[in-house]
Amino acid sequence: MDLLVERDGPVTLLTLNRPDKANALSSDLIEALLATVSEAHRDGTRLLVLSGAGKNLSAGFDFTDFENASEAELVLRFVRIEQLLQAVYHAPFATLALAHGRNFGAGVDLFAACGIRIAAPETTFRLPGLQFGVQLGTRRLAHRVGADHARALLAASKVVSAPHALSIGLAQRRAPRERWAEEILAERERATTLGAEAVARLNAATSLDTRAQDMADLVASVAAPGLKDRIRTYRAAHAK
After folding, report:
1. Which domains does the chain have, with CATH numbers?
2. What DSSP line would sit under 153-201, residue for residue?
3. What predicted TM-score, i.e. pTM, was given to this entire model?
4. Res. 91: pLDDT tops 90
């Protein structure tokens, strides 16, 4: 299974389970995440936890089969990713992301969409999407780290270390993986201190709601002719 789902009382734990593909976001994984997060909005979840099996949280968009996909299919997959990110960011409950290893693109956006963000000491992040013309999660990132840091991260597309991520607010805490169970328990207690309705109101009042504009910007960027050519050029330039 591409996504492992475990329910522990008020906690829903989601583990991205494509370790052989660095947990890249395939169509199947995106749909599984969307369905499960949507269900969590209705089933009494108070804390949603996201982590990744294997060596990292997520390598972002899965380019494995992009040559065989039409541009329309690629556009739809990016749209579904944006819908997933919005569902996580605007969740009426606490959301916790646990990152380790090397993380890229939409995988970093998924991390940033969560309200509580913990990175293992060796974790790195990179956001290369604008190099092939895709604008995804820009406003959410700027809300997390500030406009200046967001511009620097997106324009340079440089690798961001865990200490740097912590210093700018992309990550909130560093914790080795052996301590993650303790972190989840602590966040479970915090997530249930207030009633569910109070938490939902608090999250809504403190989240930047630019869903319509974010989707419009994403669609405009991926619908521009030549998406596959841009991806192809980017991948060729970064092939090892």
Report:
1. 3-181 (3.90.226.10)
2. HHHH---EEHHHHHHHTSSSEE--GGGHHHHHHHHHHHHTSS-HHHHHH
3. 0.97
4. yes
